[in-house]
Design a protein that fits this description.
Distance between the termini: 13 Å
Order of helices and strands: EHEHHEEHEEHEHH
CATH architecture: Alpha-Beta Complex
Helix content: 25-40%
Radius of gyration: 17 Å
CATH class: Alpha Beta
Number of strands: 7
Largest sheet: 7 strands, mixed
Number of helices: 7
Amino acid sequence: MGALVLASRSAIRRALLENAGLTLTVDVADVDERALGAATLDAAERARRLASAKALAVARHHPDAIVIGADQVGVLDDGSFLEKPTDPADQVRMLLSMAGRAHTFHSAAALVRAEQVLAVVDEGATVHFRSFGEAAARAYVATGEGAWCCGGYESEHQGAQLIERVDGGLHAVLGLPLFGTLEALRALEPALLL
C-alpha cells in the first residue's frame, strides 16, 4: 500500500478525505495559480490544469506516493471569474456582487504518481445566493470566514446562510470532487479504501 499526499493547504479538502477514512500527509504545492490559470478561459479546464500542476509539483518530492492535487474555479452567472478576496472591503464587494445571483464552482482533483498524471476527475455545482444587502455582507465578513476562499465565503459554516439552494453536488462547492477522487483511488490503490 502506497502513501497518500494531499497537495493542498485546504482544511476542508483534508477533512473530506480523512473523514472518508483515508490516511494522508499534506505537502502544499508551490505553484503560481494565476499564471497557470490564465492560460485558459474555460473554468472546468482551468480547475483541471491547476489541480494537475499542484499534484505534479508535489510529486517530485514523493516519488512513490499518490499525490492528490485539487483546485476550484468559480464563475459568476455573467461569466466573470470569482477570485479570493484581497481584503475585507473586497470581500464585502464580492459578496454583494453575488447576492441574488447564481455562480458555478468547477472543482477538480488530479492523482499523480512518479510525476505522471494517472487520473483527473471533476465536478460542478451551481450555487444560488439569496438576496441580501450590505449589512448582511458586512456581518458575514466580520465572522472572519471566507477571507481565503474562492468567492469569499464558506458554505460549510455560516456562509450557508447566504445560500438559497445548490444545484449539483455539495462536494464541488467545498472544492473537491470526493466521490470521483475515491473511485480513481480505488482503481489505482484498492488497498487504501474499503
